[in-house]
Amino acid sequence: MHPASVRRPPGEADVLRASEFAYPYRHAQALGVLRLHLAPTLGGAPAAGVWWPHGRDLTREGPHLVDDFPKRRGRIDRLVYSPGDWDVVAEEVFTRHGRIKVGFLPARRTGGLVLLRLLGSEIIRLRVVWVAPRTDPGEDRPSSRA
After folding, report:
1. CA of 54: how far to CAs of 31, 32, 35, 36, 67, in Å?
2. What is the pLDDT of residues 40-81, one digit of tens each?
3. Is 104 in contact with 76 (CB distance < 8 Å)?
4. Is 36 in contact with 52 (CB distance < 8 Å)?
């Protein structure tokens, strides 16, 4: 059922509920805080970072990354990854911003790398770490130490 065809009681605001979300294949369940550390951009050097997804299902993790990516850094309009690194893969993901096209790295390029293209064509290389991050008391960001 399209959100515009939903009949509401008189006086109820026009707010999309999770069941009326425009992209029905997007998981509405929150995954928690986006576990991401981005290095500062320095004089034209390629941006890089580390991402700790909550699982290996890109259909859930991709939208979480796009939707919760720091706004001050820009908006993601494309993801590129190695399908061999994920249990559930996708050619597109559905986010609050709409459909995001997803591309594939060559099969030999495994090992936890995701490339993000931001609007304006900046590319960010993320190293993917599936071990839950730990924050040391003296650090302001997660570490991947076991």
Report:
1. 7, 8, 8, 11, 15
2. 876 666 678 999 999 899 988 999 999 999 998 889 999 999
3. no
4. yes
